[in-house]
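Escalation from tier 1.

The customer reports that the assembly of two entities below gives different structure tokens on two consecutive runs. Tier 1 could not reproduce it. I'm attaching the input and our single run for tier 2 to review.
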Amino acid sequence: MSEPSYASLACPAPAITSGIIELAHGGGGRLTHRLIDDIFRPAFAVAPDDFTHDGAVLGLESDGQQLAFTTDSYVVRPLFFPGGDIGTLAINGTVNDLAMCGAEPKYLSVGLVIEEGLSIDLLRKVVESMRTAAVFAGVRIVTGDTKVVERGKGDGLYVNTSGVGLIRARSPVAPQRVEPGDAVILSGDIGRHGVAILGVREGLGFEMEITSDCAPLSAAVLALINAGIEIHCLRDLTRGGLATGLIEIADTAHIAIELDESVIPVSDSVRGACEILGLDPLYVANEGRFVALVPPEYAALALEHLQRFDQQATIIGHVEAGEGNPGVRLRTIGAVRALDMLSGEQLPRIC
Amino acid sequence: MSEPSYASLACPAPAITSGIIELAHGGGGRLTHRLIDDIFRPAFAVAPDDFTHDGAVLGLESDGQQLAFTTDSYVVRPLFFPGGDIGTLAINGTVNDLAMCGAEPKYLSVGLVIEEGLSIDLLRKVVESMRTAAVFAGVRIVTGDTKVVERGKGDGLYVNTSGVGLIRARSPVAPQRVEPGDAVILSGDIGRHGVAILGVREGLGFEMEITSDCAPLSAAVLALINAGIEIHCLRDLTRGGLATGLIEIADTAHIAIELDESVIPVSDSVRGACEILGLDPLYVANEGRFVALVPPEYAALALEHLQRFDQQATIIGHVEAGEGNPGVRLRTIGAVRALDMLSGEQLPRIC
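Tier 1 run:
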């Protein structure tokens, strides 16, 4: 995902003053947010509202059409995994960041940083995956850049994709619009991408192969918009998973989100793998799942549309006023626990 | 520079079928063009005309306004050099790619791939350079992304910047529009960026410090447009330098360009350093220099405007019909020699 939140987040991690970059600074958790708040926001943010989206929403001077603009770098290892590869991921990831702005994705750029020694056959396969994914998502790759770095200065292939889309939502889609009463709808089962990556990386032989959920989300989002559904906020559940995505929204909007754990869809195979690996599926990365926060009167219609794309789409919770106690609460059997943002990530470098 | 030429180039290098990526594939010369022609173009190019710019020019459906869109990754080593750093370079480079489309640069994205262990103070300095460069160039950084890779899997910091601009030129700016008779105007002296980088990298103590020419070119381009000057083609002279930029234009436009070596401005210090290092300044990278190809009746006015930005701006040659003999010819004292595209680059990884 692009930085979802140059927006200020109430992270208790200490301010960054000096030191060195650790892996956790890239993990999408508290340390990433500190880096954003302490280094990037003061330097780049002119207006605080500029940085509350998965991508930027830009006005053009000549008419009312707004653009969405987003960027993402992909450093996934391994390059190929069940259900996709770094090429599929790079296209769908940027398509999804645009969709999360309420935009129709239109144009993509591809920037490659290739390590000397990479197999040209492998590069060709990745490029072919990009082509296929772009056609499937209805976007055009219109500009590119290639750099080659010396052996040992990269990891095979790093891909940056940036994207431009046309805003289709009739009102802004942003965390600040979330209101008490909003329904939280999850678009499908969670945890598959992260577990699929880890399975290959660690050479774990799961009984059933778990494939990544990597997919474009723009068709589902456009279906909601075209159905006239008022959308307050959209968020794809990449690094940090469902929990981190919702915590970011709650912190930005100063509201509370209450989830019902029993209805959150997690496949048996993912649940089993997570138990073996000691992972919480709520924090595991997805690459084809999102949440939509919509006013309660639109919840049933939104669910109906999302279930056409994935039968497992479910209303998993609702928004409450956050006074004094913002954040995300998970209702389990007989208890309610607060979900905290992780410091780093559970799985390094999976998106 | 973004790939200037997914456009077909008449490169005699053999087709890429398999093998591995070499450093020269990223050097901006023949091998880069082979990679583009053999791998990227067949996969990405829907219409052949899509890929003849430094960036893409995109139409919006709702009105006549066109956008420019470009991407570039920066893998420069060292990260700091006389006259700039990777942050300055990343902002100006993408600003310049947009300007070369005849666009006013507006919005930039920043994607960072940071190697674990990078000093946070260094990161802060680079980000501050980006901020300063963006303010100076009149662009806004509106979205970003950060990834951290393991120690030994990067080289401190790789930066991708993508950019969106509004097309201001009244007619297309593209190699295909170049015509016999056009004047070739160079915006200033050449070779400073490449020599500055190499000087630091190799620990060469030049008598006089040579500073990079890194600078935004958008103000100069907009001055030409606002003066009503018809512009056929613009090209910033990055990887591969003046020679490679003009060869690409000549190959795409199927024309010949004749240059007068004696008027091409090269500072004494750059000339001296190039002699010591065995480099041809015509092929050395610049980060704040461009050529404008304009109809002869506009040449004097264009020169007048460009000299307000840099007194060394000069008409260095003109375009001739290319029938049977397209390419770039350099008229030296008593001789004319053809300039060929290099296989790789003279200096690895300087932009």
